[in-house]
User: Fold these one by one.
Assistant:
Number 1:
Amino acid sequence: MQDTQTLSSNTTSEMKVIAGDWITVCTKNDLVENSGVCALLPAHLVRGDAKIEDNLEVQIAIFYIKQINKVFAISNYDPIGKANVMYRGIVGSISDEPMVSSPLYKQHFSLETGICFEKPEYMLRTYLCRIQDNLVQVKVGSINHSSQ
């Protein structure tokens, strides 16, 4: 069994945004199949409501689902458990929808929409994510949903 890991972030000055506004977070080899890793990114690159001078950072959880060869990026913050722990959750599916269960209280969140299956009033921020030339990338400003 492989353990989850936290990825070291680049400093804001070292973070490179490539053409098309994608941030390279890590390589595919840094990911743990069917599990999560945590990355720390400058908030102004992934959230529309942050400014570069605020010097804020955002934790995101990145999951690589080998069976469908797809990566998902969501907020690492569990809005029910009120802790940055989502990368430690167990992945699976409910009605063919990829999901992660919170390691704290076991609620299930969609990796595609961020919505909690048991309590839809709670949702995680989701980010567009891809693997391009073995690089895992997150789209700048690509929030699909807001945490409640």
Number 2:
Amino acid sequence: MTALRSLFPIMDLTTPALLFPAISLLLLAYTNRFLALAQVIRQLHASRAREARLARLQIPGLKLRILLIQYMQGFGVLSFLLCALAMFALFVQGETAGKVLFGISLLSLAVSLVLSLVEILISTNALSVVVKDFEAEEESPS
């Protein structure tokens, strides 16, 4: 049993509490991404150029980014909730449950961050499409 304790040291309330500010800031960043994306979509819809080739090229990426941000936020909130439950379990002396909940919370946070990376890559690709279009306009004779 002591060998097992050395592998999994005692955890107190402060360990999961360290994640609270990080998760809160992450959720705020995700919300800002969503709002910026919503603004781009609304502007695209309101513009007369929404039938243009460039606009049509961006629609699949915009749809995927909305879905990714939704899942990013969901896994971030799940991580926050599991972290709070881990703290509660530790508070009522349920160390094993607290460790398990905290571990799942970390996994949920990791999934959220991976989804965030994928969304960033898609966003960067969308900017590349716009830059290529600008370059093509400059090269074509007027």
Number 3:
Amino acid sequence: MKNTRKYRWFYWAFMLGMMIIIFVLSHQPGTVSTKISDHVASTLQVESQEKYFYKAVSAQPLFAGLSLRKYAHLVLYGGLGLSTFLVTKDGRLSGKKKIWLAMAICFVYSCTDELHQYFIPGRGAKFIDIIIDAIGYSVVIGLGWLVLWIKRRKQ
């Protein structure tokens, strides 16, 4: 426990950093966001020879019917899930309460992010994005809990 306490400031900075990154990306108008997504998609198209990558347009499916933007939701909220898990794992709450707290923080942030996007020109609030965000952070928080559980069982 002592070893992880000295990293607590880093965990908080990581969580706040993820929130800032998500906010900045969400705050871009639709045209700017589309240009960035298309650039990333075209880079993937050039560098990848896999059959799963289609035309370099960010709104088209890459794999499993999800677009590049939806994968960005998974990755960014996975990072937020990891950071909130690290922040909450050493608290005074019981194991399950720590997990639910981390999930609640991510859920509230996801909802407020979609509400924020509603007011950005060319963007909108989409319920499916909240679901995709939840998949991203739930998987990472669940894996974090599983790793800790396995470590404790071995001790």
